């Protein structure tokens, strides 16, 4: 809106100045200076706000990279900036940092960034990297163990086959030295997957992380489970808010008797047709 006003400033001034009732609304140079300073500070944020509000692609893992970009580039005060612009940039950055300083949010964002093959450890604080890795190993191990327990032991066959006579060579199996490697623990397998994941070359920034994990799932069967859990989280509540806004437009006073299943169908049609 501010950018549009500045583009049409001359036309607006001419229209307001032509009428005595509105001539006092003609923007002064101080007003224009404030608008220009504000526009310069907030304009770079629009594209990122729209991108993080998407729902058809991974967005949560982009929060830390975007915050880093804001802090080191887009919201960094410049020499030619007015004091108002510098103040606005500083306040925006302070607000964003306070919004994501909560421990639970930091842990979630660190894990999501780690599991995005485009970023991995790039935007994670070096002092917290080992902690994040250990937490990833712990979560995957716990998930795999719980899955194994739920599956339970296989059912024993009711009809037991007749006992076979033992061959002569079987007596020497127990006495022969074992050359088979010891089976790896679940934790060791997860650690191996994670170490291999970090050795993979960097991928293009426009690669879809979910498609990447789908393609590499055979190589990382355990790690891909954790990636699905975290990368499916939306970065903002905008997608759900859009659904509620559609529902609010459907369920009005004149349609208060609609059945819930009818409302669900109408919302689905409104979002997909």
Automatic annotation (TrEMBL):
<dbReference type="GO" id="GO:0046983">
    <property type="term" value="F:protein dimerization activity"/>
</dbReference>
<dbReference type="InterPro" id="IPR012337">
    <property type="entry name" value="RNaseH-like_sf"/>
</dbReference>
<feature type="domain" description="HAT C-terminal dimerisation">
    <location>
        <begin position="193"/>
        <end position="272"/>
    </location>
</feature>
<dbReference type="GO" id="GO:0006357">
    <property type="term" value="P:regulation of transcription by RNA polymerase II"/>
</dbReference>
<dbReference type="InterPro" id="IPR052717">
    <property type="entry name" value="Vacuolar_transposase_reg"/>
</dbReference>
<dbReference type="Pfam" id="PF05699">
    <property type="entry name" value="Dimer_Tnp_hAT"/>
</dbReference>
<dbReference type="GO" id="GO:0005634">
    <property type="term" value="C:nucleus"/>
</dbReference>
<dbReference type="InterPro" id="IPR008906">
    <property type="entry name" value="HATC_C_dom"/>
</dbReference>
<protein>
    <submittedName>
        <fullName>Zinc finger BED domain-containing 1-like protein</fullName>
    </submittedName>
</protein>
């Amino acid at each position: 809106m501010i950018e549009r006003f500045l583009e049409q400033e001359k036309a607006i001034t001419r229209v307001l100045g032509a009428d005595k009732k509105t001539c006092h609304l003609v923007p002064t140079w101080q007003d224009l200076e404030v608008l220009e300073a504000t526009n310069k500070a907030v304009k770079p944020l629009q594209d990122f706000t729209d991108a993080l509000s998407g729902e058809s692609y991974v967005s949560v893992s982009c929060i830390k990279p975007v915050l880093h970009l804001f802090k080191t580039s887009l919201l960094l005060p410049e020499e030619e900036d007015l004091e108002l612009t510098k103040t606005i940039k500083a306040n925006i950055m302070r607000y964003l940092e306070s919004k994501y300083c909560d421990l639970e949010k930091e842990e979630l964002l660190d894990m999501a960034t780690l599991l995005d093959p485009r970023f991995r450890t790039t935007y994670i604080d070096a002092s917290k990297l080992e902690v994040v890795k250990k937490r990833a190993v712990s979560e995957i191990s716990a998930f795999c163990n719980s899955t194994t327990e739920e599956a339970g032991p296989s059912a024993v066959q009711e009809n037991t086959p007749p006992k076979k006579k033992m061959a002569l060579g079987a007596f020497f199996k127990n006495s022969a030295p074992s050359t088979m490697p010891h089976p790896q623990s679940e934790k060791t397998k997860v650690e191996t997957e994670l170490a291999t994941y970090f050795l993979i070359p960097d991928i293009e920034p426009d690669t879809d992380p979910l498609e990447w994990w789908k393609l590499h799932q055979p190589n990382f069967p355990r790690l891909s489970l954790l990636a699905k859990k975290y990368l499916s989280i939306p970065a903002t509540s905008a997608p759900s808010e859009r659904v509620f806004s559609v529902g609010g437009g459907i369920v009005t006073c004149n349609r208060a008797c609609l059945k819930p299943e009818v409302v669900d169908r109408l919302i689905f049609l409104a979002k997909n047709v």
